Amino acid sequence: MIRLRYYLREIGRNLYRYPGTAVGSILSLTLIFLLFDLFWVAAGTSNRMYQQLLTQVQMEIFVSDNLPDSVMTPLAGAIADIPGIKDVRYVSREDARLELTRLVGTDLLTEYDTLNPLPRSFILDLDQSVKNLASMEMLDQSLRQISGVTDVSYSRDWLSKAEETRSMVTRVGMILGLIILLTAVINSGNNIRLMTRARGGGYGQMLLLGAGRWFLALPLMLEGFLLCLLSAVLSWGIVLFAGRKIAFSQFAIVMPPVGDIALFCGAAALLGFVSGYVGVRKLLR
Asked: Could you say which of 154, 188, 207 is where a domain stops?
């Protein structure tokens, strides 16, 4: 209990004697954490939009003109038996004509009343687990092996670019996290090192009186813990406040779960404890 009071008194004394250093450290760390928070929210929002767009991804299979209409039902059954396909919808020539008319606003086939040149096809609704480029390429190969299938169409280019973008966002997040880690450690460690140097004489006297090095260093390490924790909480407070005030008509901002935010603040506090050790390591020698 006596040690706890000493630790709290030392932390309060440092913050009282060097308020500018403490406030500057909190503000700089808040800006650093805020940058990561905004990236986290942007990544979560873009991922939600990506998942919503994936629900609209379908495959369309075009069949040969030589196949009679009587084999369409057995062919649909054979296609539906392939793993990853949830539903199969047959599109006749007339259905294709009606869809084309709906898209362009006029019937372009008025001169083809007796012979409709549009191909017949099947539109496939896929399981969510196969809505990725690798799985859809494998499914494409399997479908092309079915007799009577002439072509398979799906959003291959869009999927390729979307997955490449997601991979790039992940790499940027890792690099940004590493930069923030190093910056926070250096920033907080330097501030604590300045406080240690300012009180170097007092620490030297306490060492001569028999005080342990860890006993002297722990308040400074706890101070780093506290500063980073306050900065992380403040940064998320800014993000959550802004999230309530800002709204977009095209999409909704996705905030991380409260548990993940709490884990982030805890990790930031632990990072501050480590940075405190970096700042006082010379004192421990």
From this structure: 154
Based on the domain organization, do 21 and 97 belong to the same domain?
Answer: no
pLDDT given at position 238: 92
Tokens matching residue 36: 């990561």
Beta strands in 45-183 (DSSP E): 58-63, 85-91, 121-126, 149-153
Give the span between the Cα atoms of 8 and 219, in whole angstroms: 7
DSSP 55: T
- Non-local (6+) Cβ contacts of 98 within 8 A are none
pLDDT band per the 50, 70, 90 thresholds, residue 76: confident
Judge if 195 and 275 occupy the same domain: yes
Can you give the residue range of the structural domain that contains 140? Answer: 58-154
Q: Which tokens is 79 given? A: 């296609």
- The contacts of residue 58 (CB under 8 Å, 6+ apart) are 123, 124, 125, 126, 154
Both 175 and 140 in one domain: the answer is: no
Strand 58-63's sheet: what is its strand order? 85-91, 121-126, 58-63, 149-153
Which residue has better confidence, 17 or 31?
A: 31
pLDDT level of residue 15 (50, 70, 90 thresholds): low
Query: Are 146 and 170 in the same domain?
Result: no
Q: Is residue 285 part of a domain?
A: no
Residue 242 has a pLDDT of: 87
Residue 246's contacts (CB-CB under 8 Å, 6 or more residues apart) are: 253
Q: How many domains in the chain?
A: 2
- Look at residue 22 and give its three-state secondary structure: helix
Rg (CA), the chain: 32
The answer to whether residues 98 and 217 belong to one domain is no
DSSP string, 166-206: HHHHHHHHHHHHHHHHHHHHHHHHHHHHHHHHHTHHHHHHH
